[in-house]
Amino acid sequence: MSTDRRTFLQRLLATAAGVGLSPGWLIRYGENYGGALAAMSRKRALLIGINTYPEPNSAFSLQGCLTDIELQRQLLLHRFGFAATDILTLTDQEATVTRLNAALDEMVSQLDDEDPLLIHFSGLGLLQPDAAEGEGTSLRSPALVLLEEGGQACSHLPLGTLFQTLAALSTSQLTLILDCGFNFVEPRVRGNLHLRSCPTAISQVVSAQDNPSPTSQLPALPRGLLLTATSAEELAAEATWSGFVAGIVTYLLTQYLWETTPATKVLTAFNHVTTQRELASLACQQPILQGNDLQSRQLAPELHTALEPGTRGWTGVIQEVKGNRASLWLGGVPPGVLCGLQNGTVLRVFPQDPGQGDVGKMVLRARNGLTAQATLVSEEKIPAVGTGIYERERALSLNMRVLVGMDDSLGRIEKVDITNALAAMPWAEAVYPQDQRVDCLLGKLSTAGNASGEGYGLFWPGRELIAGSWGPLEKRPRQPYNG
User: Fold this and answer.
1) How far apart are CA 204 and CA 227, in angstroms?
2) Are 477 and 462 in contact (CB under 8 A)?
3) Which of 121, 133, 178, 181 is the most exposed place for a label (fewest CB within 10 A)?
4) What is the pLDDT of residues 246-285, one digit of tens each?
5) How does strand 174-179 pair with strand 225-228?
6) How many Cα neighbours within 13 Å face the side chain of 303?
7) pLDDT at 42
8) Which residues pair with 91 in a beta bridge?
9) What is the DSSP letter of 26?
10) Rounded Cα distance, 178 and 166, in Å
11) CA nearest 415: which of 406, 405, 427?
């Protein structure tokens, strides 16, 4: 059973947290989300991420899968009370079928029926011929691309095989997240997006024009919930954000869970997810949520309440303190804010006791992707590692520009002309989208209604045309900009 995009988004937050609890359960207990889980048995997580692949898939290696794993790990540790010893990670050469099966075998003996288990995979997926249907069939089955022992060869794990293994787990509180694609269509790189899929064989690489549209579907997960970045036949990608690369679904999901207020009432924020600009502008994919008990997880009316006055979401967490310097994780800063976050931004420390007064503030001094350095204003109040922080005063740049990515559809001379034209505009800058975050793309498109067959247009990063931005090829691209 599957859901549409809106229904998926409305249930997204609880699913990604890896805790398939019904709203009724939360209402009856009305306790802290993490505390309620702690009252149960152990929470477990298995996080798998592969950036580097050997031949023949080395050309399809990724950059953001290990970031996905860290995004999930930090969220589970600091927002949902997972113990570090209960989070197992398999990255790059460790991510083999043998080690995956060994981890699952261990969990079979340790998990009880009500123990929440989150399994997350970020890496490549593919579609391979369905062996059960025989030769000549057009039906292809989705599979995950893992590694053989030693990391010198790839191993394809069909989802059907994985799901049979998961059926042996005793827990009914299973959530499986797959931030990968399965179908592959050239081009692999689309602006600042990189597809998370590969062809079964290099000779099977096809373009969008001659894509055979294979018949494929995701198998049913025998228990729990399945969250995938896309369907078996659509595309999924990772994106270049502000100083880092991460899966679109993983980053937007974990970021929203950090800032959801308060953490004890995660379900109250469901409807707010649908307003995320980044999800719409980057949407080259449509996430899918499946499960046999989706109807029992509908939101109760009591949970659609306004946030309590004075409550705040987490901007991030303190990872280390040395003297008057603190190292921070900024997983809760919205993508649209993170790209403009400047030195001088003032951050407050959450009191660990709600009745406690001011526990200090810090000033941002440097940022590298999702990590940052800050200076404590007062050394008399040294916050503990693991304490949450929130943004109090935001320092804005005086030189904020629209970053216009040069699409691969443009020729070399066109890119030079456009770059020179944008250089004369103080509010815009031409960039190469493969290297950094972009606000939009400028490229060519073909239209049957245009006599020349082509025109220039502005696109969202997910390659959806921005309304009203198309223009015919009547002039060299620098002339409209200068005019």
Assistant:
1) 27
2) no
3) 133
4) 998 899 888 878 877 554 333 333 334 434 555 556 656 6
5) parallel
6) 26
7) 76
8) 49
9) H
10) 14
11) 406
> What DSSP character marks residue 446?
E
Query: Where do we find the tokens 């949407």?
Result: 283
pLDDT at 448 over 70: no
Residue predicted with more confidence, 104 or 478 = 104
The letter for the amino acid at 33 is Y
Mean pLDDT over each residue of the chain, to the nearest integer: 76
> 273 Cβ partners below 8 Å, 6+ apart?
9, 10, 12, 13, 256, 279
Q: Looking at the DSSP assignment, which residues form a beta bridge with residue 48?
A: 90, 121
Which DSSP category does 240 fall into? E
Query: In the structure encoding, which two tokens stand for residue 152, read together?
Result: 């010198």
With a cut of 70, say whether residue 394 has pLDDT above it.
yes
Q: In 79-94, which positions are buried (b, 16+ CB within 10 angstroms) versus exposed (e)?
A: bbbbeeebbbbbbbbe
For residues 123 and 182, what is the distance between their CA atoms, to the nearest angstrom?
Answer: 10
C-beta separation of 130 from 158 below 8 A: no
Cα distance from N-terminal residue to C-terminal residue, the chain: 54
Residue with the two structure tokens 């179908």: 183
Cα separation of 315 and 297, whole Å? Answer: 28
Q: What is the spatial distance between Cα 34 and Cα 82, in angstroms, rounded to a whole number? A: 8
Under a CB-based contact definition with an 8 Å cutoff, are residues 340 and 379 in contact? no
Whether the CB-CB separation of 339 and 281 falls below 8 Å is answered with: no
DSSP code of 192? Answer: T
Q: Is the pLDDT of residue 239 over 70?
A: yes
Asked if residues 147 and 196 have their Cβ atoms less than 8 Å apart, the reply is no
> What is the three-state SS of 202-239?
HHHCCECCCCCCCECCCCCCCCCEEEECCCCCCCCEEE
How far, CA to CA in Å, does 363 sit from each of 57, 245, 359? Answer: 44, 26, 14
Q: According to the model, what pLDDT value does residue 367 have?
A: 95
